[in-house]
Amino acid sequence: MLKKIMAIIPSQFYGRGVAVAITILLRALLNFFGITLFIPLLMLILDNESMHQNAQIETMYDLLGCKSDTQFTIIIAAGIVLAIAIKNFIALWLFHYERDFTYSLYRNLSRRLYIDYYSRGLTFVRQHNSAELSRNVNFVCLNFVTGILKPIATLCSEAILFTLIIVALAILNLKAALLLIAIFLPAVWLYYFFIRRRLNKYGKAENEAHKARFKSVTESFRGYADIEINNAFAQMLSAFNDSTDQLIAMRKHNATLSAMPQSITETTLAAGMATLVIIGAYTPQGNIGLIFGIFAVAAVRLMPSIRNILSAITAIRYNIYTLNTLQDIKGDDTTDKHTLERLNLREKIEINNLSFKYENPQDKEATMVIKDL
């Protein structure tokens, strides 16, 4: 799949693509930074006695010149809020850069496909349904960037964040990290294993339903007179209804599968916390409250992360059909020969040795040569 995607993306977008990859990494690091900010505050709330036992916290306490533990806690809480606000502002700016890249690529692909179809000539246009060509130009290109590229970016960002959280949690408490891995990774694998084929099937079926609907509507308006003369509108309407029903059925299936990640993550989170409570009941020694708090912070942040990963997988599998449509785009957006420049006609138009031949095998071959017009 990656090879097909790289073949579709124009070479002039490769440099910006690298920049987007860097922004994805930076956003993951910023999100991880936002999570780590809660750890000191959590330690102050759940294990207040450790404040003066931790060398880093004690150093910060002295630098701020705090007169009481309460004052220190308030300053740290306010600092965390400010830092998270700044983090979110930077992350939003990075997201805007990714968004601009995505829709610039959509414009390029849609324009190139439009030029490509037009440049293939009258024979190509007649051999293909105009509604299908129109849909490919207008919707398939959009589905590629929003249903393939954007989910891939989300998948990469959330996977990096997931790894960073697990590594950091393992450093703080290995058991809590292993518990998170044990409850989340199997859920992701099972979801992907059971739904990937269905998503491919539903995506292709929806695409075919869209084609059929566009064809019915286009032919109805274009051939209005013939349909009225032959009293064929009932047949056209029946075809339209069938394709619409198929489209709705596929959308219902997709909506159900898209809603599953939230249920899966909430269930696995509840199971993980229940497991940690049971472990705490049988191991009273140690500060289980602090471990539970750290686990809860990590798990609550991982819930939307896992949900985004599952949603991204759903979108990619559902829109994978777009790769086959776009991989044959010819030409380059920078070498467009179709311009609005006017020709300067002064004396006459002269055509010499012009030949014409029907390329459609169903038509009889005919050649006519026009000379010295």
Care to describe what's here?
The protein has 373 residues and is an all-alpha fold. The chain has helices at 2-8, 14-36, 38-46, 55-64, 69-119, 121-127, 130-172, 174-222, 224-229, 233-282, 288-318, 322-326; strands spanning 354-357, 367-370. Helix 7 (130-172) runs antiparallel to helix 8. It is elongated and about 95 Å long. The model is unreliable at 363-373 (pLDDT under 50).
Task: Record the SSE blueprint.
Layout: H1 2-8, H2 14-36, H3 38-46, H4 55-64, H5 69-119, H6 121-127, H7 130-172, H8 174-222, H9 224-229, H10 233-282, H11 288-318, H12 322-326, E1 354-357, E2 367-370
Antiparallel strand pairs: 1-2
Helix pairs in contact: 2-5, 2-7, 3-5, 3-11, 5-7, 7-8, 7-11, 8-10, 8-11, 10-11
Q: Write the element-wise H/E pattern from the N-terminal end onward.
A: HHHHHHHHHHHHEE
Strand order of the largest sheet: 1-2
Distance between the termini: 53 Å
Helix- and strand-based class? mainly alpha
DSSP helical segment count: 12
Range of helix content: over 70%
- Kindly state the number of beta strands: 2
| Main sheet record | 2 strands, antiparallel
